[in-house]
Amino acid sequence: MRVLTQGTGLGIDVEGLTHTYGSGPDALVVLDHLDVSIAPGEYVAVTGRSGAGKSTFLAILGGLERQQSGRVVVGDVDLGALDGDALASYRRDRVGFVFQHYGLLGSMTAAENVELAMTFAGVSRARRRARASELLDAVGVGARAGHRPSELSGGESQRVAMARALANEPRLVLADEPTGNLDDDSTVLVLDLLERLPSEHGCTLVVVTHNHLVAEHADRRLVLAGGRLVTPRGT
Amino acid sequence: MRGRALIPTLALLTATVVLLGACTAGKPRTLPRARNGPAFTYVAIGGADTLADGTDDPLRQAWPQVLFRTALPRNATLVNLASSPASVQDVLDRQVPQALTLHPTLVTVLITDDAFRGTPTATFETRLRDALVQLRQGGRARVLVANIPPLDARPGYLACLPGAAAASDCTLDRPVPDVATLDARVDALDAAVARAAAATGANVVDLHAAVLAERAAGRETAEYDPGAISPNAQGQRVIATAFADAYRRSNA
Amino acid sequence: MSWRDACGVAARSIGRRLGRAVLTVLAVMLAAALLSALLIVAGAARTRVLSQLSKGGPLAGIQVAAAAPDPGQLDTDNPRPGPARDLDDDALHMIRNLPGVRSVIPLISTPVRVIVPDPPVTGHGTTTASAPEPFTETMTGFDMRHSGQLPITVLSGRLPAPGSLVEVAVTEQYLQRIHAQKTDAKRVVGTELELGAPRVFPNDDTVRGRWTRALIVGVVAQGNAAGDVIAPIEQVQAAQRWSASGVGLDDLPTSKYSGLFVVANGLDQVGPVRNAITQRAGYSTSAPENLIATVQRYLRVVEIVLSGIGLIALVIAALGITNALLAAVRERRREIGVLKAIGARDRDVRRIFLIEASLLGLAGGALGTLAGFLVSQLMAAIVNQYLTEQGLSAVHVGLPVLVFVVGVVGSALLALVAGTVPAQRAARLPARQAMGDL
């Protein structure tokens, strides 16, 4: 994938992050005073068993979930100080998401899915079309731009999702089990694209995964268990 | 339907609704407008024949009414000034002055009574000429003057002849001339009509020839009801046809 | 997110779940069709009933007779007139200047001898019509340019052209006279009458007719005056002048005008104008004001009830929209989460769902209004077939602008309201729904 933009990723500082679902005696603590730092442009894999809090951690980093306590600073933005539209702007301008289920809208073509992200950013129609075409070519599915998700393979769908994630030039890309639904060949393709994001796109990449192959290619591996980090803190 | 096509389709449907709304059911077929045309006044002058005394429905069946209905433009108006009886003197005294107040476009003249009365030919011709000159209004009006048809077969005349079987049907002043005398008078008066018409620019309607043709075809008897001095509806149509033909020829 | 882009997303979402959308639109369509059909039919019925009461003329019309008022019948709609009183130009001018009067149309009548053509109808086919002996009847004339303001209903053909000297219309009375059925009305059109105005010259004891020929161009029902023949005022004036210039005819009317038709500025002015004509001008008047007011009240109730029925149907359909969209919100939780994940604000999500609701309502409203209009046309065709068989004039059914607006725009607005709760629920969904259940 050729370089689309130049820049650096966002650094992440997490201090005392705690998150609980439910209340009372049935409350479930999924994150327990989590402290972690991620350097700008770093490729970090987050692993652990199911229920370890990995996806919740990702959701908080991406502004999908409001933090309950602790401090999370992404770049120069304290997420705890954001709400409503501010969080939506943070997600739109700074973060790109890649989901296990791809997250594409079935009523739109591949190109329209990529353009949708730029629609919320107020980009003009002409510019949206041009950039969507560029991104889809860059991820190798340019020829499938006019097809709907139901007509794409898993690997193609995930690559379209990656193109969408990059549409607004994010400085932080969060991927939740990006290869969870893919076969081996598609996994390799997607993994290759993911790996090149920090260097070629200038962003910080955090990937939640069960896949050892994915974790091995990361700069650093964080292991969560019981809501706590069981690997040493980063710099 | 693709989402992209939904909005244009909705717009088309809405436009269809609006256009159909402009339509309403049941506009009936109507006649085109009938034109008024230039003013046309037709005055009929004459005697009993023109009043259609011999018909059941004089208003509908009188020959001037038939002529008016069948040969003249729709915007024509008709005034029938005929009276019964009416000699040429009666016509000159009353009918002509009345006609002139109406400024007619067309005048028809049919006077038969003088043949029964024995008006001298010269007197008839002078008075007729006087009437025609006035009616012509210096050429502004067209005048159709009929010569006198044969009168010798009319039941009302025959009833007045001595020894007639239906003498009670006689309405003429007795004594009436015999057939030969009557025929001779008719011929002389017809010649007078022709001279008067020629002198005044009026058109002659050869009613005499028309009735002779009916006689030759064997239809004349049916054109009079028993005891009548004037023709019935069928006979009125013969007169109307003769005048209509003359009118059309004068138009040509 | 712009409105255009939001419309695009909403339209695509609808297209993606077309079956459910079609069912929802169908529900709205049926309700809108019911509402529009009821309103259209109610409006047409109202127009027809009131037109029948006013005999085809304006509702605020008043007939003024060439007669003094009967003191014992001043407050009734249709009083018996008192003794004859001439209506002349002074009276016309005075009435025209009364407050509350919009227009005054003079009527002129004259007796004429009528020769009916034999046969009295055109075309082939059996008929009971026959030509009677020539008869005397009244010919009534008015300025045909104002025919729209008179209580005249054209049953077949049309009215004579203004200023025509060769066209007339005949009334139902003429049909009765020639023993024709009402269904023969159209066969009378195209035949020709001969009309003779009477006159007696001085020194002549014979009544002389001024005969004219006139093409029957229409058959009408009219409540102006008695008589078989309706003609442009120019024809009647010519006949009247002919008759008046003679001597010795006793049955000629002496009044210049046989009547006036006055149109008041509104239904509320009819009473005061009638009072003024009766008391100040001194002429007898008639107008169906009380009857019209009563009937209008009842018609209003009927319209309210019918509108209520239609609106209830529409509300039920709107609840269907709410239900369908709530189900959609539940099913599309992850999709909504993804939208938020890629930058949609709460209000963007709300906008998309409101537009979806509005589009469903708009489609249903447009299709339903069209269907309702077509249903009303079908009903009109069936009714008109019956009316024509009875020799009555047809009902005309159009699509009033108000019904169109209520049907289409109203449906869209109601759907918008119905979509409020689902849209709000979708807007409040947390963005983390994008990741599924955590």
Q: How would you describe the overall organization of this protein?
A:
Chain A is α/β, with parallel strands linked by helices and 235 residues long. Chain A is built from seven helices and ten strands. The two termini of chain A are 29 Å apart. The N terminus of chain A is likely disordered. Chain B contains eleven helices and five strands, in the order αβαααβαβααβααβαα. Chain B is 50% helix and 10% strand. With 252 residues, chain B is of the alpha/beta class. Chain B has a five-stranded parallel sheet with strand order 2-1-3-4-5, sandwiched between helices. With 438 residues, chain C is of the alpha+beta class. Chain C has a six-stranded mixed barrel. In chain C, a hairpin with a 6-residue loop joins strand 6 and strand 7. The mean pLDDT of chain C is 87. At the B-C interface, helix 1, helix 4 and strand 2 of B face helix 1, strand 4, strand 6, strand 7 and helix 10 of C. Strand 2 of chain B pairs antiparallel with strand 7 of chain C, so a sheet runs across the interface.
* Rg from alpha-carbon coordinates of chain C: 32 Å
Could you describe the largest sheet of chain B, including whether it forms a barrel?
A: 5 strands, parallel
Tell me the overall shape of chain C.
elongated
Number of separate strands of chain B: 5
Classify the secondary structure makeup of chain C into a structural class. alpha+beta
Percent range for β-strand residues of chain C: 15-25%
In the predicted model, the low-confidence regions of chain C spanning at least 5 consecutive residues are: none
Greatest contact pair?
A: B-C, 44 and 66 residues
Short description:
The complex is a heterotrimer of chains A (235), B (252) and C (438). Chain A is of the alpha/beta class and 235 residues long.
Topology:
The complex is a heterotrimer of chains A (235), B (252) and C (438).
Chain A: E1 12-21, E2 28-38, E3 43-48, H1 54-61, E4 69-74, E5 77-78, H2 84-94, E6 95-98, H3 110-119, H4 125-138, H5 154-165, E7 172-176, H6 184-201, E8 204-208, H7 212-216, E9 220-225, E10 228-229
Parallel strand pairs in A: 3-8, 3-9, 6-7, 7-8
Antiparallel strand pairs in A: 1-2, 1-4, 4-5, 9-10
Helix pairs in contact in A: 3-4, 3-5, 4-5, 5-6
Chain B: H1 3-21, E1 40-46, H2 48-51, H3 58-61, H4 63-71, E2 76-80, H5 88-100, E3 106-110, H6 113-117, H7 121-136, E4 142-146, H8 155-158, H9 179-200, E5 203-205, H10 207-216, H11 233-251
Chain C: H1 3-16, H2 18-53, E1 61-65, H3 89-96, E2 101-115, E3 135-142, E4 152-157, E5 167-171, H4 172-177, H5 185-188, E6 192-200, E7 207-222, E8 229-232, H6 233-244, E9 259-264, H7 267-281, E10 285-286, H8 289-331, H9 333-341, H10 346-389, H11 401-418, H12 420-428
Parallel strand pairs in C: 3-8, 5-7
Antiparallel strand pairs in C: 1-9, 1-10, 2-3, 2-6, 2-9, 4-7, 5-8, 6-7
